[in-house]
Give the backbone structure.
Amino acid sequence: MKQRAHVLVVDDQADNLLILEDVLAEHYEVHPAMSGSEALGFLEAGGRADLILLDVMMPGLDGFEVCRRLKSSETTRGIPVMFLTGLDRPEDEEQGFSLGAEDFIHKPISPPVVLARVRTHLALSRATKALQRRNADLELLVAERTAEISEQSRRLVASKQEVIAAQAATITAFCALAEARDNETGNHIRRTQHYVRILAEQLQTHPRFSDKLDEEVIQLLFKSAPLHDVGKVATPDAILLKRGKLTTDEWVIMKQHCEYGRNAILQAERALGGAADASFLSYAAEIAYGHHERWDGSGYPQGLAGDAIPVSARLMAVADVYDALISRRVYKPPFPHEKAIEMMALERGKHFDPDIVDVLLRVDGEFAAIARNFSDETEEDGLAP
């Protein structure tokens, strides 16, 4: 049987308490209190309240002072407070909201309004608590996985090929997290790391990039590129695997994968103690956080523009979007290679660094070859000869 929510009703007028008890008792466990002190004592003694209806004008502690004390306590600040009042000045409501109250109900009360408002705020409170629990669980999961990765890396560092082994183990562990959540990830990360390497190699002699893309950096970019979407491990399945267009609220949550990915990678880098073999994680963090930025500043999460976007993230942006276009997704079929290249060219200087797009247009045949070599398709698609 579903447990009923508990509502604490605080009013110094007995008739008001009786009316509210009569309205709410059919649906909730109601706890009446005739003063602010009595209400605080009830909670301090361990009494349960999922929501508080609180009169403002009371002798002794008025409702505003009771609310202030509730919101200053770690144990009670999360309980929604709704004021019951005959006050109707805007400044009174402003004061109540500044103290942390969720709503005002003006006297004389309307039973249907009270019941509807209580039901709404209890639902919001439950949703908020569920989200907080999920976030805590995700943080714990990331912390546990990061600890495992760090321990594995420390063991491998002691071997003969310590640098290579530590890097490979870290990438494998992170990628295993991403692949476990999204079955479209596996070959996508293999394709994109090869795209990134081709673009970087072609730009080695370019005046804008020659001082940033030596052989060592290109190798580090190749190793770190697979971690670009690792933050999606923290994205709920209902959003990550949704077959239709995301809502505005769902899109806000989806975009957070950039920050989640960067934070997890930086935590792993710190766990490695800043050793030289952790340097590739700096590029991985750049890519994870910045690969959805756009050259014209319209991207996320920071809205960076032009050269303010790290080179690593600019390279991944081109690689990631091209691969998304030519790949089958739950929400779309794959575009043919030629159509994808045409669409990429139209975004030159808008979504993408124009010089990187120019390289893509020169080496698009190599991109198509990589896509075929690491294809997800089991039947003929737009990349087939």
